[in-house]
Structures are given as structure tokens and as C-alpha cells.
Design goal:
Length: 139
């Protein structure tokens, strides 16, 4: 099976969705999907070739808005994204490294969706499955 590069999914969301994800700085903890009130009607987790924070380009699982028409533009998912990878389409990531560092440093000070949220068990499990899917037999 040939797996698309992350840029294909990025471009698809750019054309069809109110949000975009700069996948090389997405950690793969699925925090966005967990907080979305309509997650089942909007999000899918798909295989794509991408690095993790710039390290080792390979097949990983990442969130994708398969049904953006169901999005209510509440932006709860944007607030919950720990790395800043998920943004409104009109304000995409311009400087990935700076965005990642800024959002990581901000995490301990976030009132909602801070460190405690990111290190919840379910996000840790998704992080492992989504970044090493071959070990879990899901790709
Ligand atoms: S903006 Fe709101 S409705 Fe749309 S995907 Fe994010 S959390 Fe879900």
C-alpha cells in the first residue's frame, strides 16, 4: 500500500476545512479528537509519511478532518493542541520550530489543556500507537 506524504493531507484540509495541521510538529496524541464535541462526525486517523518534531520521516498515524462540513468552528481543538500544529486555515504555522518551542514552553502555564491534560493515559497510549503503528499492527 502506498502511503501519502503529510503534505497531501495538509493541502486537502487547506482546500476543504476551516483548520489545517502542520503535521511535522503534531505529536500524535489525538488531543484535538478527544476534545471535539463532534469527533466521530468529523475526524479520522490516517496513515501518512511524516517526521515527529523533525525526527525520522516514516509512516505514522495522524488526525485528518474527513468531514469538515460538520465542524462548528468552536476552536476547542485548537486550544487543546499542545504543539500549535493545529490552526485556523487563515492563520497557518509559518515558523514550525518557533511554534513548537513557544507552545511547549507555554504548556505548564495553560489553565486548560496543560501538562496534566497532555499526560493523560489515553493520550500517552495514542502517542505510542500513532508514532510506532507498525509495533501495534495498525499499518
Ligand atoms: S473547531 Fe470545534 S467542531 Fe471543529 S473540529 Fe475543532 S473542536 Fe471540533
Amino acid at each position: 500500500m502506498s502511503v501519502p506524504d503529510w503534505k497531501e493531507y495538509y493541502e486537502k484540509m487547506k482546500e476543504t476545512a476551516p483548520l489545517v495541521i502542520h503535521y511535522p510538529i503534531c505529536g500524535g496524541g489525538d488531543e484535538c479528537i478527544y476534545v471535539c464535541p463532534f469527533s466521530d462526525k468529523i475526524w479520522e486517523v490516517v496513515p501518512m509519511k511524516v517526521s515527529l518534531f523533525g525526527v525520522r520521516y516514516k509512516v505514522r498515524l495522524r488526525p485528518f478532518m474527513a468531514h469538515p462540513e460538520n465542524c462548528r468552528k468552536c476552536y476547542i481543538c485548537v486550544q487543546a493542541c499542545p504543539t500549535g500544529a493545529l490552526r485556523p486555515v487563515e492563520n497557518p504555522v509559518k515558523h514550525p520550530a518557533i511554534t513548537l518551542i513557544y507552545n511547549t514552553l507555554k504548556l505548564p502555564f495553560k489553565k486548560r489543556y496543560g501538562l496534566k491534560f497532555v499526560f493523560r493515559k489515553e493520550h500517552g497510549e495514542r502517542f505510542k500507537r500513532n508514532n510506532w503503528p507498525e509495533k501495534y499492527g495498525v499499518v
